[in-house]
Structures are given as structure tokens and as C-alpha cells.
Amino acid sequence: MEARELEALILAKTRRLVVTGEPGDGSAAARQFDAVALCAGFKCSRDLLERLSGIEAGRVIDIAAAALEVVREQAGDHVRHHSYFLEFPANVPDTMEFWAQCLREALLDPVAAGQVEAGPGIGPDGRAGFFLNLLSLPSYGRYQHSYADMLAAHDELIPAVSDRVTVLHLGGTLDDEARDLYLRLAGSAVPLSGDDTGALRVLARWCADTVVQPADIPVRESRAVINAARLRAALPPLVTTVTDVLRLACELSGGDVSLREPTRFASLRRRERDALLAALDSVATAPKLADVGLYAERWKRLGERLHPHEYPRYPRAAEVFAVARGEVAVPSFGGQVEAAFARPDVDQAVRLLRTAPGRLWRSADRLFRAASDLAAADPGAADPAVPDAAAVALVMAALGATAPDVSGRVLLSVREHLQNRAFPAAGRLFANRQGRAWAAPDWRVTLDRGVIADACALIDAEIMTRLPAARVVLDEGITGAALPLSGKPLPAGLGIFPRGSVTRVEGELLRFFIYWRQKRQRTDYDLSALFLDERYANPRHISWTRLSAEEAEHSGDITQAPAPDGASEFINIRLTHLGRGFIVPQVYVYAGEGFDEADESFFGFMTRDGEQAGQPFEARTVRMKSALYGTSRIAVPLVFSRGEDGAWRAKWLHLYLRGHGTASWGGPTNQVEGGRVTTTMLARSVVEREYLRVGYLADLWRRKGCEVLDAVPDDGEPVTWIGLEQPGGLPAGSEVFTLDRLGDLIPA
Predict the structure, then answer these.
(1) Residues 282, 245: contact at Cβ < 8 Å?
(2) pLDDT attached to residue 426
(3) What is the pLDDT of residue 665?
């Protein structure tokens, strides 16, 4: 990778700008850069402006041009956002009148009339009827005016104090910034997003032969990426399990290091085969061979590429492939644990699980339920509803003994889970690493509140000992941010909070937007919003089938998004017209390429004061912009709610639904009317769940005896700053945790 590309990556990930150049007077160019960046909602820090002002003007212009490309893309301002209705949100027509007008225009044109598709068919409800294909109307779903016409129809945006301003900071040397970002990503306690994994892949190659390397790599997928870079640099890989070697082989073959999807292994060079087999031989001890059966087929395919029979000096590596082929029997640890639970034998289950502390803690709920099953099955129990005391004591003792050996992320994940088990849940939410979600009724018995309290107290005490002594300065805007515990990576974008975070929404107008650009075929995405009352009932919506209402307008349905411009849709909502309840924005793939197939696709929202005009899209009013990804066909990014205090808040979902494959004539389609029940259940499952947030860690710091302040003291002593943005003028030696570093707050 060239230095310029690496500088762009560092800016996108850290908002720190690497500045190099000969001395000179670049003050005028620096001021111009600052003014242009502000139009996209970004501003240079004082240190950055001073540094830019002191180098040659031509170099400042080059740096500014490259930086503007990066920051504008972060806000979604790198593309042209066009609206179907020229004056949106003004003069949006009634839906039926609009469709009738499109039909009249088609019928008045003899050529167009012959292209209109209409006739009998079967609707989504299974009933026969007469159907009209709106997509065949020549004036429907296609921009009817130019982008310049749309710009001319809108007044200039008058800046407001509430507009977003994201500060760009002065970075160090390229090598220093690359090393720091590399160490941060490599040492992350939570799995990285696809975007961050790509950044780690680049940085690992850049830093492979540097002296400073991460002391620990908690995430196995990240370890595979780094090991591949080490192998290419003729360095030995860092592995502790046989599965680490399998992940490394997947990375070398360009496959899936998470092992969710099969990998077609590439032909490897002899040096690579030797290194993989040597690494495998070093970790293939008898206890770890039990893991081979989890991916037996992949091990067999890998064996065909590694030729272990050609390397007799690695006998234990050869045994791995013998286990995969079934020639050597290895008892399954998981099978033994399941047999103990089936009896149920809590004592045996605990004895087995103590050898795997992380798995023991992840099984805590199941162990407590097994203790309840013992009490219910005991005819002599005084109260069958009370868990067996001896079994509970056994489980608690095992948890207490193993807590120091378990990662902070696992401990906090168990705590978050347990604190939601005292009461029956509205539904259980399941979501995989791609965010694909489904909900189901929760039939589990609630856990005893005393047991929950004791387990949570145990976790709090352990986490408190791991928190470093610090003087913490906590920005109020980040206290509602959820700790990223679930291992569900966040999408790339701007202003994105982890699932379960709650943030306040300022402004009188809320505007959603999507943008997409198709690659090979006509692609139609639909932006919709579902409105629910405070009881999650009385659903209403705004979408391409209901373009306007008292409180909202839709910018119009666009049914194709060819390059180079793509297409955009908007929904404008006047929050002052709504009472208590919920707003659930959604993005549907109606037809064509999915989120992972299109050239580009993203969702976001803006907020504006009631008097602000401007274009349908104004970068400085963008509060969040998130890439859309995965193979699902419906995205549910977040839910907005209005509480008893009258304030609007967003709770972040990052969920995806499978949906239908694609629209067909007379067949099922992805649209808001058909998914109201599923969407409502998913939203409610997240809204009513209590997540561990930054405020929880702040409370533990207070209990530990540390200062937790709301402003930086003026004594010049270093602080630990936790906030949405890094402020200027922090004392030397201070540590900064912003949105992109929330995972680093989780103790190791």
C-alpha cells in the first residue's frame, strides 16, 4: 500500500491527519480547507491548523484534497443525493393521485401505453385480482428532473448551533500512527467489523517486521490476519489451538477466518505448508484434538493441500488429520457436558466445565436452571420453586474460583444476560455476526433474583479489580453508549453506536436517507418507517405506498440506481406532530442486488431545527451514516422513542431480516406492510432489554474510589477522557476513549 492510501486509512479510522511537507506559508490554503471541511460537518483542530499553516501551500492543497475525499465519504457527502419529488419535503402529492397521474401520462402516450403491464394475478394474500405493475409506467420510479433543477428548487441551508461538527486532529508520523492503530485493532477485546478487519490486514503487513508487536491478541480472527502477515514476512505464526492454524489457512486462501462459511483452500507454497504443519504440530496435544471434530470436513480439505505425509517430522500434525478422517477416536468434550445436563447432574457438569472457564461462565444460566430442575424433581423439597441450595452453592463456588481466568468481555456479557433474567422477557432476540436477527417467545423459567444478585455482585467485584486506577472525565453524551460485548461488529460509517445504546435526539425534524448504486442489474431499495404507539400497537407507516401523512413525507420511490449517480430516498418526519411511541426506520431490498452485491449502499439520519431549509441532504446535519451489508434483504438500523419526559431518543438495533428473495409479478415482496409483526417484536426485544453501558463502568470506578468528573480539571494532571469526540487541550499523558474505542474500555 502506498503511503497516501495508508494516510487515508488512518484518517478514516482515527480522524488524525498525518502532515508532512517543506516549511512555507500555507495559512491561506489551511483556512480554505477548514472552511470547505466545515460544509461537510468537519473542522480542523487548532494544532492541525497551525501545522498546516507552517508548510508549503501546494502541499497543503494536496493534503486537503485527499482528506476531503475521506471525510466527505464518512458523512455520505461523496455522492449526489437526488430526490424524486423536486421540492421535497414540500408539495409531496397524495399517493393515489400520484399513481393516477403516472397512469394518465402513460395512457396519453401510445408508445408508453403499450409497455404498461396490467392484468389478472395472485396477490401476496393469495387472492386473485387485477394488478397494475407500477414499474412499467414510464414516469414512475425514475428521476423526472435534473440534479441541478433540484438544487435550484431549494434555499441555502442556514447553519445552526446544533449542526454536527466533527474535529480533525493533528497526527504524528506515518509510522507512529500506523503502529498505534495496528496495536489498537490487534488488541481489541471484541471482534472487528469487516471494515476494521480490512484495515488490520493492511496494517499487519506494514508493521509485520517492526519491533513493537501486540502483547496479546484476544480475538482469534484478528490473530489469523496477523499470522498471515507474519508468515509472509518469514516469521513464525502465533497459535495456541489447532483451530488457530485452520483460521490461518483460511486467511492465506482468502477465505472466511470466522469459519462460518467454507473456504476453498488455495495451493500453498512449500515454505507455507512447512510453517503451517510446524505450527500445528506445536499445539496438537491430546486435549486440544477434541476441537478437530468441529470442523472435520475442512481439516480433510486442508490436508489435501498440506500433504502431511510428506513431513514425517511433524507426527502430531498428522494425527490431527487422522482424527478428522475418523481413524483416531477422540472423546467430545461437548458431548460429555451435554450428557451431564441431560441427567441432570450439576456436579458432573460443573466438574467438566471448570476445565474450560469461559465455557463454564457462558453456561451459568443453564447451570442455575439445572439447579432449579433438581429442586422441582425432589419430592422432599420444602419449596420446589426455590433452586437446590447445594447445587447453587456448587455453581457459585466454581464461578468464583474461575472468574480471574475469564476474559472481561465474557464476564460482562454474562452479567448483561443475567440482569435481564429476573423478569419474563417480551421475546428472545437472536442475532448472528452479520446482524441477521430473529425473535421468539421466551419460554425459559425466570431465575431466582437472589441468585442473579449474587452472580452479578461476583462479576462486579472482579471487573472492579481489573479497572485501572484513573481520574475519569465522562462526557454526558456517551453515558448511554452500550459496551460492545456481543461480538456483533459495527458497520463502517459515522456516529455509529453499539447495539443497545441510547442517545438523545435533538431537533424538530428527523430525516432518514438511503443511497444505493447498482452493479449489474436493476436494483430497487425502499426506505420505509413504521410508527407505533407506546404499547407497540396501532401501526402506521410512511413508504412508497403511502407518500405523505400529517407528520411525515416520503421523497418518492426510485426503482433503479445505475452508475455513476445511483439513487437516494428520504423520509422527513416532524417530531413535534407525534406523541409518545416509536418510529422504526427500515430499508427493504425490493428487487435486484442485495446489500453485499451492490456497488455501494448506506443508511443514515439527519436532524434539523424547524426553521432550517436546505437541500434534502446536508452533510453537516448528518448525525449517523452506516454502511448496509450482508445477505439479508431487510435492514432495521435503530428505533426512535418518545418517553414520558417528551424527549426523543434513539436506541440502536443494527438488525437484519431475511425477507423474500426478490419481487416478482404477483408474488411476495419486501415492504413495510408485510413485516410489521416481525419488526415490532424485534424492536421491542431490544427496547425492553437492559444493556450494560458506559455509565456502568463509571459507577464501578466510583466504587473503586476513583474520581469521575464531568469536566477536565485545570491542574494539568492527565485524565482518562471518555466522550463522543476528543477535545482539544487535554493534559499531556491523558488517554482518550471515543466511540471507535469503546471496546478498549472492556478490561482484559
Answers:
(1) no
(2) 65
(3) 42
Q: How far apart are the two ends of the chain, measured CA to CA in Å?
A: 32
For residues 252 and 569, what is the distance between their CA atoms, to the nearest angstrom? 40
CA atoms 325, 328, 334, 339: torsion sign: positive
| Alpha carbon distance 39, 58 (integer Å) | 22
Name residues of the chain where pLDDT drops below 50: 664-668
pTM to 2 decimal places: 0.90
List Cβ neighbours of 47 (8 Å cut-off, separation of 6 or more): 169, 170, 728
Q: For residues 237 and 228, give the distance between their C-alpha atoms in angstroms, rounded to a whole number.
A: 8
Of 4, 8, 5, nearest to 68 by C-alpha is 8
The label of the residue with cell 499487519 reads 204
Name the strands in the sheet holding 634-642, side by side, starting at the edge strand that comes first in the sequence: 502-505, 648-657, 634-642, 581-591, 524-532, 540-542
**Is residue 709 within a helix (H) or strand (E), and if so which, with residue range?**
strand 708-709
Q: What is the pLDDT of residue 428?
A: 76
Cα angle 67-69-74, degrees, rounded to a multiple of 5: 95
Query: Whole-angstrom Cα distance, residue 23 to residue 44?
Result: 19
Read off the C-alpha cell for 677.
409483526
Residue with cell 508549503: 56
**DSSP characters over 340-377:** HHHTT-HHHHHHHHTTSHHHHHHTHHHHHHHHHHHHHH
**CA–CA separation, 628 and 587 (whole Å):** 9
The torsion of the CA quartet 548, 549, 551, 552, rounded to 10 degrees, works out to -20
Residue 120, class by beta-carbon neighbours within 10 Å (0-12 exposed, 13-18 middle, 19+ buried)?
Answer: exposed
Q: Evaluate whether 314 touches 281 at the Cβ level (below 8 Å).
A: yes
Cβ proximity of 694 and 479 under 8 Å = yes
Start-end of H helices in 15-94: 27-39, 46-53, 57-75
> CA torsion 79→85→87→89, rounded to 10°?
-90
CB proximity list for 619: less than 8 A, separation 6 or greater: 39, 40, 41, 72, 75, 76, 77
593 C-beta neighbours (distance < 10 Å), count: 22
CA-to-CA distance for 299 and 599, rounded, in angstroms? 34
**Total residues found in the chain within this entry:** 748
Task: Look up residue 560 and give its amino acid.
Answer: Q
CA distance 135 to 145: 18
Reading phi first (left if > 0) and then psi (alpha if -120 to 50, else beta), residue 666 is in left
The answer to whether the CB of 259 falls within 8 A of the CB of 297 is no
Copy the grid coordinates of residue 184: 489498537
Residue at 599: amino acid letter: D
Rounded-to-integer distance, Cα 263 and Cα 249, Å: 9
What's the Rg (C-alpha) of the chain?
28
Grid coordinates given for 647: 424527549
What angle do the packed helices 27-39 and 46-53 form, to 10 degrees? Answer: 140
Type of residue found at 663: A
Task: State the Cα–Cα distance between residues 636 and 586, nearest whole angstrom.
Answer: 5
Q: For residue 339, what pLDDT is reported?
A: 87
Round to whole Å and give the CA distance between 199 and 184: 11
